[in-house]
Design a protein that fits this description.
about 475 residues, mainly alpha, Rossmann fold, three-stranded parallel beta sheet, binds glutamic acid
């Protein structure tokens, strides 16, 4: 069997859409799981709608999602000479013809066909005209669509779809200004790129029949098709800015790790039994076309968050930190100092297991990202003023000598609580306030472990001094 070649062929007309990202992911998984190639083609033939910023958005989106492609991106517009060459080749081999009809004449013919309730698609009277009759006028090149029989699309997702050939227009391949049409460009590019499997949105299913006409006319091998249903929003309507975030980069800005997005998007419309959480390696091994669903999938933020939580919890700390830095960059937050980065790296083991996104991870780690003097959240301040500070007075000196590990710290704190005759849960807010200034923190012992002896003691003393004066 020949090597698998897939592609993603986005039209650069705005931000990279999450649906395009999922299509890219499916193609990537399919190729990477089969030792195949995954290519990127930028469909930039519509100059009025394509622009460089949109192309960059695609490249950025692909890079963030880790969807590496083989070779350089291919620009469809740059391949126009090849598309023109093929239109003329079709002419030469009698599979296409020159049509000299004016727009008015075409409209008249169409009106007549409607009036006569003609069941067949558009055919030009120039279809069989001998060249001796050709006027010296601009012309378009049209394909000679077969008049009988049917074009079958064997779609891996949609099943076999049959379209009667007399329903297929003699579509234009080359316009009268000599420019190739989109349908020709796609077929020629896919053929020249050696694409074996076309996995794309089912809004392109109708195009497959037309593209097949071109393949058949040239005796080219028809690729395997898999037209995948669209993604819907949580309200069941087509995904739009109104019911969801449509652009890939918005998800990066929400602070989901790329691995979680890959995992979630893979599950959006494809399944492997009941598996919800999986690694890239598993996805590459498991991904197939048979288990792509036929009906539109609904975007579900809760599921995405749950998957994200698992990916953050299971991530390698250095990789997680790297991604966190990228996140801060994309949301225009100041970068972290080396001291903060070092602290974070020590802290991740204690903090990464229960958060769903990078903003939550940062919040959990705010104790290590703060510098003295520690600002105390007003709601926590209200709570602590009810408690005596004598706990700190007893605790702080003893912290100088205790062995700095979690169990010894726990032991020490319990004995101090006994001395002051308070429950640990009464004392904890005061410690949280002193060490973090917030109540949303990891456990007091974890914070102490991460902060280290010196910083812990400094924070406790600072708090004691300030509150002695105030209370
Ligand atoms: N350029 C098309 C799009 O962005 C995809 C065409 C294709 O995959 O054949 O929807």
């Amino acid at each position: 069997m020949s090597k698998v070649v897939t592609r993603i062929a986005p039209s650069p007309t705005g931000d990279m859409h999450i649906g395009t990202a999922r299509t890219a992911l499916f193609n990537w998984l399919y190729a990477r799981g089969r030792n195949g190639k995954f290519l990127l083609r930028i469909e930039d033939t519509d100059k009025s709608r394509s622009n460089k910023a949109a192309t960059d958005a695609i490249l950025t989106g692909m890079a963030w999602l880790g969807l590496d492609f083989d070779g350089d991106p291919i620009s469809q517009s740059e391949r126009a000479p090849r598309h023109i060459e093929i239109a003329y080749k079709l002419l030469e081999i009698g599979q296409a013809y020159k049509c000299f009809l004016s727009e008015y004449e075409i409209n008249d013919l169409r009106s007549l066909a409607i009036k006569n309730k003609s069941p067949t698609a558009f055919r030009s009277p120039w279809r069989e005209a001998p060249s001796s009759t050709f006027p010296n006028k601009p012309f378009v090149i049209r394909i000679k669509a077969p008049q009988s029989g049917a074009t079958i699309i064997n779609d891996e997702v949609q099943g076999n779809i049959s379209i009667r050939n007399n329903q297929l227009d003699d579509m234009i391949l080359l316009r009268s200004d000599g420019t190739p049409v989109y349908m020709l460009a796609v077929a020629v590019d896919d053929h020249d790129m050696g694409v074996t499997h076309i996995i794309r949105g089912d809004d392109h299913l109708n195009n497959a029949a037309r593209q097949n006409l071109i393949y058949s006319a040239l005796n080219w091998n028809i690729p395997v098709y898999a037209h995948i249903p669209l993604i819907h929003g949580e309200d069941g309507k087509k995904l739009s800015k109104r019911n969801s975030a449509t652009s890939v980069i918005e998800y990066k800005k929400m602070g989901y790790p790329a691995s979680a997005m890959r995992n979630y998007l893979a599950r959006l419309g494809w399944s492997h039994g009941d598996d919800e959480f999986f690694t890239d390696e598993q996805a590459k091994k498991w991904f197939d076309l048979q288990h792509i669903g036929k009906s539109p999938s609904r975007f579900d933020f809760k599921k995405l968050s749950n998957i994200s939580k698992l990916h953050i919890a299971n991530a390698d700390n250095a990789a997680l930190l790297h991604e966190l830095i990228e996140y801060l960059n994309v949301v225009d937050q100041p970068s972290l100092s080396q001291t903060h980065l070092n602290g974070l790296l020590r802290s991740l083991d204690f903090t990464k297991s229960s958060v769903k996104s990078f903003p939550e991870l940062l919040e959990k780690n705010s104790f290590i990202l703060k510098d003295r003097p520690i600002y105390i959240d007003p709601d926590l301040r209200e709570k602590i003023e009810e408690f005596p500070l004598k706990t700190l007075k007893i605790l702080t000196p003893q912290l100088q000598n205790v062995k700095w590990d979690r169990s010894k710290l726990e032991e020490l704190l319990n004995s101090v609580c006994e001395q002051v005759e308070l429950k640990f849960r009464t004392v904890a807010p005061i410690l949280r306030a002193a060490l973090a200034g917030s109540s949303k923190t990891p456990s007091v012992f974890d914070m102490m472990t991460v902060l280290g002896r010196e910083e812990t003691i400094e924070r406790l003393i600072e708090f004691e001094v300030k509150n002695n004066n105030e209370i």
